[in-house]
Amino acid sequence: MSDNRIKEHPILPIIKQKKILFYWNGKLLKAHEGEVISSALFANGIRIFGHHPKDGSAQGMFCANGQCAKCAVIADGVPVKSCMTEVTPNMKVKSVEGLPVLPEVEREPDISGIEHLKFDVLIIGGGPAGLSAAIELGENNIKTLLVDDKSELGGKLVLQTHKFFGSVEDSYAGTRGNDIGKMLAEKVLHSYPPDKGERKGVETWTNSIALYVYKDKKVGIIKDGVYKLIAPKIVLNATGAREKFLRFKGNTLAGIYGAGAFQTLANRDLVKPAEKLFIVGGGNVGLIAGYHALQAGIDVVGLAEVLPKCGGYKVHADKLKRLGVPIYTSHTVISANGEKEVSSVTIAQIDKHFQPLAGTEKTFECDTILIAVGLEPVSEFAEEAKTAGIKVYSAGDAFEIAEASSAVFNGKIVGLKIARELDADVGEIPESWYEKAEILKSEPGKICPMKTPEVEEGVMPIIHCIEEIPCNPCITVCPTNSIYIKGDPIMGLPYFKGKCTGCGKCVAICPGLAITLVDFRKDAEFPAVTLPYEVFNFKIEKGDKVRCDDIDGNVLGTFKVTAVVDVKANNKTQLIRIQVPKEIAKRVASFRIQNEEVTKPLKETISPDRLQDDEMVCLCERVTADKIKELIRKGITDMNQIKAITRAGMGPCGAKTCDNLIKQILRQEGIPEDEIEPNTRRPLFIEIPLGKFADGEQYE
Fold first, then answer.
1. CB proximity list for 647: less than 8 A, separation 6 or greater
2. What is the DSSP letter of 267?
């Protein structure tokens, strides 16, 4: 078997892990202690986990977050989600081929021994919003339980190796996401005050899955495999968001998954999930995933965005373009190509009605397609808590999709609101906080013309940040206070005015890698330009020649590296110094690292039959778009009726994937939203063996 583990990473430490042995379809393989089955399989070069019982198509992975069921395997005789189940020594894992045979239950379980617990607050989700709220509740001595389904707190912060935007004061701007996750988790884990009678504060349960909010105001939770019932006064839903899927030809092939799954493999488990990656979706999620791929040593073939410009921050898109990743705006994916796994992808330009233009197709070789076409809040817990009559709040992406920096700050506000609700001695939340919260979650503002200092002497920062986004670390780090923000102190554009010492702190801290330093002091004709660099598993050394780009990725020329500064104070951002002619010094923004050959389309374009409407809508039950359209054209707009006829939504994921796709088809068929009867959710949000509801022992 191949070894697909990442052995070098510019940001993440490579820690030697204890090896354990497990079996895959009878063959002995190695895993790391504590890692989940799916990551262990990917590390061993296995991306197909089984075959669908209905059509025999290859099954792999999509979300790596327990929301779908594509990664199902049989572990020691029991069907499990491989992305949520840890490997144990000598575990016997088998692929799902057809319908699995469940093991015999030796005796009837006793349901009398279930533990009932009371808390003032139950927080579901240990990501940025849940942790920030928990810190406030802990400081106010509120008896709180925080549950998360992963083994480590932090949510998606654990997966983020880039520096965060936002405010330094309120959301750790300029600090890497994974470091923010550790800091927040550390505060929560130490929030218990000294014992004074009844112990209060924040209790945390990891490896714990919230299943449902019942009408008797209790929440069922599986903690380390044991079922418990929690009676909270208030529920805070901080469960984050789930990724949306996309309808296109070949969307069932193995090797198609979401950004969260990709980042889980690469940044949490240090497993290389691809060799050649193509990204669909130009929001911040897709753009950041592309950057993370480069840091993991993966070729990024290209990125397609259906809109005329990327929806994410311009600095994120610029980073990719400058490093050599082409971005195809006004393009859509036509098909994923291959037999069982992805071997290539075909994209095409679209017209103003979002229809593909014949003759514009391009096919690229790749082994993985990353889908990053939006998120939807995981809102079911909040809805059911309201139905049960429990006071409920939501925070972070579970409330509104925004950046993690916004979730951190909004979680803090919600935590204080809940503390006040429970009569804690909390003063009024300042109105300025709400104003700042709105700014942190705001969309990018206008793009302004690039302005640079006219002088050609001394040393100065050149700020290539020309889009209004919530971000201010550069103004906080300047030792001479010579970087300012025009207008709003977070949302405005930064500019330089004053004296620069050439320290390079602003270059190193900028989350968008959008500041360079130009130094005329030693050579006025060929000044030194200092550039930030964070992908140094693609090594750049003194004496190398690099192809320098401007802000938009246009090549300015090839120049020699004169120094590489790698110091601890710069938080794993190298400073690369080159000498260039003064005519272009202020225009140099970065340099290319990716081989252009990787990004070229194939000579032969694969163009699927567009007349067939056979794209898969329901991956669990194998329901295609034409079956859904046929019912809609007969006048059926009730999602439950569509489900009853086609079984779309009856699969293991509980309609989490297909619900959006069916609604999309209804809209395309001209059905107004108020005429669509929504799908009725199943009683439990996560599929679970019935034996788990027993007396705490393992019944499967």
1. 618, 621, 623
2. I
653: phi then psi, degrees, rounded to nearest 5? -80, -10
Taking alpha carbons only, the member of 185, 188, 182 closest to residue 135 is 188
Give the count of beta carbons closer than 10 Å to the beta carbon of residue 481.
10
- Residues 19-101+245-371: name the CATH superfamily: FAD/NAD(P)-binding domain (3.50.50.60)
pLDDT band at 610 (very low <50, low <70, confident <90, very high): low
Helices (H) and strands (E) in the chain, counts: 16, 35
Average pLDDT over residues 91-113: 70
**Angle at CA of residue 631, ends 628 and 636, nearest 5°:** 115
Specify the domain boundaries for CATH 3.50.50.60 within the chain: 19-101+245-371, 111-241+377-440
The predicted structure's pLDDT at residue 102: 63
* Residue, of 611 and 87, whose pLDDT is higher: 87
pLDDT tens for each residue of 246-268: 999 999 999 999 999 999 999 99
Helices (H), 403-442: 404-421, 431-440
As assigned by CATH, the class of the 111-241+377-440 domain is alpha beta
Question: Which of 1.10.10, 3.30.110, 1.20.120, 2.60.120 would CATH assign to domain 613-700?
Answer: 1.10.10
Alpha-carbon distances of 661 from 65, 612, 629, rounded to whole Å: 19, 17, 12
Instruction: Give the number of C-alpha atoms closer than 13 A to the C-alpha of residue 54, restricted to the C-beta side.
Output: 10
Average pLDDT over residues 512-527: 96
Residue closest to 233 by CA, chosen among 117, 376, 130, 342: 117
Q: What is the pTM of this model?
A: 0.92
Provide CB contacts within 8 A for 475, sequence distance 6+.
Answer: 481, 483, 484, 485, 489, 494
Give the pLDDT mean for 117-135. Answer: 96
